[in-house]
Amino acid sequence: MAFTIPDGAILPVKPVCSRASASKLSMVRYDPTLEKWIPTAPEDEVGYGPMGTLLRAGPKPFLIRVFNPENYEQGVFKFMYNENMSRMEAQGNFDAYLENPNDWAYQYFQEKSGGYKKDYVNEGMDPQSLILKGIWSSLVFALAFRGIYCYNTGEYFYEFLKVASEK
């Protein structure tokens, strides 16, 4: 027997919360009529951009953010509300979750039990890490472009090594 909702019925939709909502300092609220999380302060709408996501968490969360921005924002707002976090901290955690949910969950429970609290906002954003990411990215792109070139021309991938060793 299936349960049906009568037409025109307005049902309360309560967000799932990990803590009592009375102690929330977050400026995000859930609007049951729109079924969306809504920021109530302008600073809750501003975080780091898509390139920040790419640099902090890699291509997987970046692509999710670019191709599904509405759900990404809703996930960040829900993090802000449930964990009473700032926008930047919620974005960092959500990006880490999108990159690898199992590792993020392990780290989350380590933090809750008094362990090391990981800084997802600033980790890997120092100049040395950014330079290293740039070098590795350029090497990966060079190999990818070499592969595409060889595929299109029919040339052997390692042909440039033979030419260099013959000289």
Helix content: 55-70%
Count the strands? Answer: 2
Question: What class would the helix/strand composition place it in?
Answer: mainly alpha
Q: So how many helices?
A: 7
Task: Characterise this structure.
By secondary structure, this protein is mostly helical. 55% of the residues lie in helices and 5% in strands. A two-stranded antiparallel sheet has the order 1-2. A hairpin with a 4-residue loop joins strand 1 and strand 2.
Task: List its traits.
7 helices; mainly alpha; two-stranded antiparallel ribbon; 2 strands
List the helices and strands and how they pair.
Blueprint lengths: L27 E4 L4 E4 L10 H8 L1 H9 L1 H15 L3 H13 L1 H12 L14 H27 L5 H8 L1
Antiparallel strand pairs: 1-2
Helix pairs in contact: 1-2, 2-3, 2-4, 3-4, 4-5
